[in-house]
Amino acid sequence: MNAEIITIGDEILIGQITDTNSAFLGKQLNKIGIDVVQITSIKDEENIIIKALEDAETRADIIITTGGLGPTKDDLTKHTLCKYFNDELVMDQKTLEHIEMIFKKYINHPILEANRSQANLPSKCIALQNKYGTAPGMWFEKDEKVFVSLPGVPFEMKALVNNEMIPRLKDRFNRPFIVHKTVLTYGLGESAIADKIEEWENNLPDFIKLAYLPSLGRVRLRLTARGNDEDLLIKGVNESVKSLHDYIGDIIKGYEDENSIEEQIGSILTEKGLSLATAESFTGGKLASIFTSVPGASAYFKGSIVSYATSAKQEVLGVPEDLITQHSVVSEEVAKEMVTRVKNMFSTDIAISTTGNAGPTKGDSDAEIGTVFIGIAFKTKVMVEKFNFGNHRERVTQKAVNKSLEMIFDLLSKN
Amino acid sequence: MNAEIITIGDEILIGQITDTNSAFLGKQLNKIGIDVVQITSIKDEENIIIKALEDAETRADIIITTGGLGPTKDDLTKHTLCKYFNDELVMDQKTLEHIEMIFKKYINHPILEANRSQANLPSKCIALQNKYGTAPGMWFEKDEKVFVSLPGVPFEMKALVNNEMIPRLKDRFNRPFIVHKTVLTYGLGESAIADKIEEWENNLPDFIKLAYLPSLGRVRLRLTARGNDEDLLIKGVNESVKSLHDYIGDIIKGYEDENSIEEQIGSILTEKGLSLATAESFTGGKLASIFTSVPGASAYFKGSIVSYATSAKQEVLGVPEDLITQHSVVSEEVAKEMVTRVKNMFSTDIAISTTGNAGPTKGDSDAEIGTVFIGIAFKTKVMVEKFNFGNHRERVTQKAVNKSLEMIFDLLSKN
After folding, report:
1. At what angle do helices B393-414 and B261-272 cross, to 10 degrees?
2. Among A210-219, B39-48, B185-194, B203-212, where is mean pLDDT lowest?
3. What is the per-residue pLDDT across B304-334, written as a single tens digit (0 to 9) for each?
4. How many angstroms separate the CA atoms of A220 and A184, rounded?
5. Is the pLDDT reported for residue B192 higher than 80?
6. Cβ of B367: how many Cβ atoms within 10 Å?
């Protein structure tokens, strides 16, 4: 059972927006055993959309389009779907009522003809009501294949997928099972890991596929099992992961399944009743932003001091000027002082601090570009680690964020 | 002159990572007049890669692949390219020396055979040296078409594109010009704008195409002109934008060309010698993170207090407990106090504060979900605006971030 995703609109092709919808769809479909075989981004032109639909039909059982459903002239997905299914638009009363309700409740200008016409839908489709917007989703069936058209606005699309599309796909198709387990490793490169686990990899059962996902400072190893007996798949994956520990147990720091590392940190903090704050220099609020992106973060995340400027480290965090003059802002001593002070300011159990030179220029410190100090305070203990994350601004920052998450995760696993 | 991008690897299809490479490539290619006609994400399997290359050849002059160049077993792009071009792998001495240098300089374990073999390249390709990694890019030519294979790691890919691929494409092809101009509007929906500018839109010259890009709280209008006379295109676009002011001048807040709104804010702050700080509650450091993502931000951005917990608003920012008890944390008074205090703490010219209920539950305030207060302090003035951004956590947060950027931008344009 497989699917293809077609995203419609020039804004993706010219790079004005990043396509985040496809990753969301890929994840949700996988969870219910539907394999995404291709994602295709195309222009908002009738003949191109039709060709893409025809091609997708040759590859997939389920074809999902996103985008091109707005009320304005550049959006023509709906008319093209009519042509493709040899259909015509008819007014859908329930959709019209929904659009009128959305306007009454959330939009501060009168409803227009263009909005009302969003209730004109192909007669052969089932309308999927959009909880957060005026463009409905559409569900078509043709020759045993299912076509779903979704709006492009991410949170509208997500609600339609979770509330309407996924339940309908579950009813409509018998699906195999897909089981993923992703092992988080830190500290060794992709090829060094491959070298150490060669024997293990060669002995993996046929129904399990392995992929290496290197990213800055960590390599994730993804095991994917496909088949009809879910228990067998889970058992096979768990046994393989267990035996992987005999080869690289020292660098395995955890697993990422449904949950990202920040979500796992959040669960542990909530469970243990511990609180967290950050003091960030060159990471500029990225750590705080990641922690607060997790729903329920208010249970443990108290806040952050982003002391981007050296003056802010002194005036807001209270790091003594002498200490900075003596050791420079990028130093073990400053990282230690930052983390101690932020922990006291927010009265938390745990705090983390970052200070470093991400480049491209050296700024207020003579430390080599790529030099990063990360400080962690836990109860009465404070520790600082020094790193060199290389010579590229984006890489240095992302590696520091990943390393900070790893260090917190590590600390929580051991305490 | 057009291009197709093929991204290779299951991690995109199963939604484990979001494809950000394609947006970057789309933007860079557009800048030099190359139109991206399709982006295709496929599995890491030989027959699928070959079929995708064949199909892309029917649509595009330039075919760019990303991903599948790592040293491990799941990466087979290189072998597949050999098959596609009827070629064989040979050791490239310059690439080998480069890999050995990268290992010596940045990687803390010995070089392995798997890494050395990354220097085995198809004999017909030109190797493009990867400044930040061990996987080289590859450039092929066949029947007047160009094929470029790039590694999937974003910062490695970006450097290869800027330093190697773009200069070579510029040399290789005569290209038309593509001129984009994007008008930023705030405060009206897509359909209301379409209604107001219908006459203007109907009178656009044939060589200019209009697209509506709605996102939370703002609609961007993108004008795209294509042709061989760049001066004429620029003139046409500028005249159309000028006449657009007669229709919706009141909601046009600026333009987005090369530069995002945060980059434009950064330029104005730098030019005027003004400094900025933020006090963030439910936005959790997202504003700080956006401001510090702009290179050169240290010239104006001093820092942020992320006071996520109510206790942090009192203990770290110093908002009086009485004020919170009397008005609740989500109130005009608290937003005003937050912004005044953070401005003093960081000694800046400008400060911005956010407090609100993003949901899904109400938290420490009884304010309705979606209620947001944004405070701005500029020199001796403080103003607070109240908003209701609806009923979806992600939407409320993103709308508040967008609105904050708009308010700062507006303030700077008027002062």
Report:
1. 30
2. A210-219
3. 999 999 999 999 999 999 999 999 999 999 9
4. 5
5. yes
6. 21
CB contact under 8 A, A13 and B37: yes
Distance (Å, whole) CA B412 – CA A327: 38
Chain A residues inside the 8 Å CB shell of B42: 37-38
What are the distances in angstroms from CA B15 to CA A21, A25, A35, A180, B85? 9, 7, 11, 12, 31
The Cα angle at residue A137 between residues A135 and A139, in degrees rounded to 5: 150
Residue of B nearest to A3 (CA): B13
Model confidence pLDDT, tens digit, residues A229-266: 999 999 999 999 999 999 999 999 888 766 788 998 99
Residues of chain A with C-beta less than 8 angstroms from the C-beta of B182: 16
Show residues of chain A in contact with B154, CB under 8 Å.
Answer: 394
Task: Tell me if B22 and A12 make a contact (CB, 8 A cut-off).
Answer: yes
Mean pLDDT in residue range B243-265: 87
Q: Do A106 and B132 touch (CB under 8 A)?
A: no
CB atoms within 10 A of CB B93: 9
- For residue B41, what pLDDT is reported? 97
> Quick one: tokens of B95?
């690439």
Report the C-alpha gap between A276 and B243 in whole angstroms: 53
DSSP 8-state class, residue B161 = I
Residue B272 C-alpha, separation from nearest chain A C-alpha, in angstroms: 18
Task: Please say whether the beta carbons of B84 and B8 come within 8 A.
Answer: no
Q: Give A82's pLDDT tier (boundaries 50, 70, 90).
A: very high
Smallest Cβ–Cβ distance between B222 and the set A16, A22, A195 belongs to: A16
Q: Which residues of A touch B307 (CB under 8 A)?
A: 303
Q: Contact A308/B316, CB-based, under 8 Å?
A: no
Task: Give the three-state DSSP class for A376.
Answer: strand
- Coil vs helix vs strand at B28: helix
Checking if the pLDDT of A340 tops 70, the result is yes
| Structure tokens, A355 | 């200070």
Query: What's the alpha-carbon Rg for chain B, to the nearest Å?
Result: 26
Distance between CA A222 and CA B11 in Å, rounded?
Answer: 9
pTM above 0.80, yes or no: no
Q: How far is A36 from chain B (nearest CA, A)?
A: 6
- φ/ψ of residue A16, rounded to 5: -75, -35
Residues with Cβ within 8 Å of B47's Cβ and at least 6 positions away in sequence, in order, are none
Neighbours of A242 (CB within 10 A): 10
Beta strands in B164-300 (DSSP E): 177-186, 208-215, 218-227, 252-256, 276-280
- For residues B401 and B397, what is the distance between their CA atoms, to the nearest angstrom? 6
Query: Residues of A with CB below 8 A from B392's CB?
Result: 132, 155, 159
pLDDT of residue A393: 79
Nearest C-alpha in A relative to B38 = A42
Q: How far apart are CA A230 and CA B136, in angstroms?
A: 41
Cβ–Cβ gap B194/A73 under 8 Å: yes
Which of B5, B13, B185 is the best mutation test for A, with the most CBs of A within 10 A?
Answer: B13
What's CA A407's distance to the chain center, in Å?
A: 21
Q: What is the pLDDT of residues B83-141, one digit of tens each?
A: 999 999 999 999 999 988 888 877 667 888 888 888 999 999 999 999 888 889 999 99
CB-CB under 8 Å, A190 with B70: yes
Report d(CA A17, CA B148) in Å as an integer. 23
Q: Which amino acid is at B403?
A: K
Distance in angstroms (rounded) separating the CA atoms of residues B147 and B141: 6
Average model confidence (pLDDT) for chain B? 91
Which residues share a beta bridge with B221? Answer: B183, B212
The per-residue pLDDT for A146 is 97
CB contact under 8 A, A284 and B292: yes
Of B132, B194, B312, the CB nearest to A302: B312
ipTM of the complex: 0.77
**Contact across the interface for B22 and A22, Cβ inside 8 Å:** no
